[in-house]
Write a structure and sequence with these properties.
- By secondary structure, the chain is α/β, with parallel strands linked by helices.
- The chain is built from seven helices and 19 strands.
- The protein has helices at residues 12-23, 55-67, 133-136, 153-161, 179-187, 235-239, 278-302, and strands at 2-8, 28-32, 72-76, 79-85, 88-93, 98-107, 111-114, 129-130, 144-148, 166-170, 191-193, 197-201, 208-212, 217-220, 222-225, 228-231, 243-246, 249-252, 265-267.
- Strands 1, 2, 3, 4, 5, 6 and 19 form a seven-stranded mixed beta sheet that branches. The chain has a five-stranded parallel beta sheet with strand order 8-15-9-10-11, with helices on one face. The chain has a three-stranded antiparallel beta sheet with strand order 12-13-14, with no helix packed on it.
- It is elongated, with a radius of gyration of 21 Å.
């Protein structure tokens, strides 16, 4: 079978795109490795009509609804390569165990968070160490929260999260806010802690302690980290897709229709945009799905591949 679209990644953007295509009665295959970016968080907040539900439960419902469409399939596997053969795209899965062929491919593999190498930080990722205040800030109940400085964007993050509690900005001995930045932080009542961070400690499910290099402990309800991101899969690199450098890390560069620099290959969700949340990923997936459908129609109308 030649699928109209093969979607690599069965999380929020991938399933959202697949739903649009299935409703257009197009043959769509979703290849899902079962490793969504938000798997570390117990609950998802700020998602319309789904506030507080586990992300895994939302995805399970979405997958069940998608599979009710006769032209949609979900196959659990890991895509390991994509190559063009003539006018079609061939996707290798599980190191060559199977191959699938499609007219279009959507890369919805998400990103990987590159966290600072501070003992105890990664173990608390998604619980008391977070990146998105809109997703997790309200539950901190206005308590003491921290922002770990990892890049110049961390100043912006410290200003932003001050709406969710009393903020300590840990520059970790590496960042040195300039006079204007210090003035803005002071206006938002953000305390600057210049000492380096030795470790993240504490066994509480709703709190943590930041151990400073001088031995002090700073107790917090939560710690925000603007992690650097990298595309979670090497498929785009293997295809020759252009990669875009952003202040937050690397994403796949796409045009206004979500198509990459490689014709017929699209990217959506965290993989292809800077604004990253469940809602943003779903919206981006819907947009990519509609644009892929339009490109298929244009191809059929012209008798050859034409970018819509």
């Amino acid at each position: 079978m030649v699928y109209d679209v093969i979607i690599i990644g069965g999380s929020f953007s991938g399933l959202a795109a697949a739903l649009q295509l299935a409703r257009a009665r197009r043959k769509v295959l979703v290849l899902d490795s079962g490793m969504p970016r938000n798997r570390f968080a117990a609950h998802s907040h700020g998602v319309l009509a789904q506030d507080g539900r586990a992300g895994s439960d939302i995805l399970a419902d979405a997958a069940a609804q998608l599979k009710a469409y006769r032209t949609a399939q979900i196959y659990p596997c890991t895509a390991t390569a994509v190559a063009r053969e003539g006018g079609e795209l061939v996707v290798e899965v599980d190191g060559g165990a199977r191959w699938f062929t499609g007219r279009r491919v959507l890369l919805a593999t998400g990103v990987r968070d590159d966290l600072p190498a501070i003992p105890g930080l990664r173990e608390r990722w998604g619980t008391t160490v977070m990146h998105c205040p809109y997703c997790h800030g309200y539950e901190l109940e206005g308590g003491a929260i921290g922002v770990l400085g990892v890049s110049p964007l961390s100043v912006h993050q410290a200003l932003l999260v001050s709406d969710w509690g009393e903020v300590t900005f840990f520059t970790d001995g590496k960042l040195n806010p300039d006079a204007d930045e210090r003035d803005m932080l002071a206006r938002r009542k953000v305390k600057i802690e210049p000492m380096g961070v030795a470790a993240i400690e504490g066994d509480a499910a709703d709190a943590l302690d930041v151990r400073m290099l001088d031995g002090r402990l700073v107790s917090l309800r939560g710690l925000f980290v603007g992690s650097r991101v990298e595309v979670a899969s090497t498929l785009a690199e293997g295809l020759g897709c252009d990669i875009e450098e952003t202040p937050q890390g690397h994403i796949i560069k796409t045009g206004p229709d979500k198509q990459t620099s490689v014709p017929g290959v699209y990217a959506a969700g965290d993989t292809g945009q800077m604004m990253q949340s469940i809602t943003m990923a779903m919206s981006d997936g819907v947009f990519a799905g509609i644009n892929m459908h339009r490109s298929l129609i244009w191809e059929e109308a012209h008798g050859e591949y034409v970018a819509a």
